[in-house]
Design goal:
This protein is mainly alpha-helical. It has one domain. Helices cover 72% and strands 0% of the residues. It contains three helices and no strands. The radius of gyration is 22 Å and the shape is elongated.
Length: 82
């Protein structure tokens, strides 16, 4: 695994050190976990913003709902029934 040096405030480093100590893992592992959580949070924020734009336009929102209804028909396709 490659590594890189990054600058972090003294306060941030102390929090990182404390969290790593409590979890019994390296500081890098805590930082990677935080980065992944932030990435997921941003993904959901972006998705919510995109849906808000879609929903703000009545025509595109009707199209979205119509497509969802088409997909719901696939649930009754009989597959998996015995």
């Amino acid at each position: 695994m490659s590594s890189a040096n990054i600058r972090i405030s003294a306060e941030g480093r102390e929090v990182l050190r404390e969290l790593a100590s409590k979890e019994g893992v390296p500081m890098g592992a805590v930082l990677e976990k935080a980065i992944e959580r932030y990435r997921r949070e941003k993904f959901l924020e972006d998705a919510n913003a995109a849906y808000a734009v879609l929903k703000a336009n009545p025509r595109t929102w009707r199209d979205e709902i119509a497509e969802r209804e088409l997909w719901e028909n696939t649930l009754g396709d009989g597959l998996g029934e015995k």
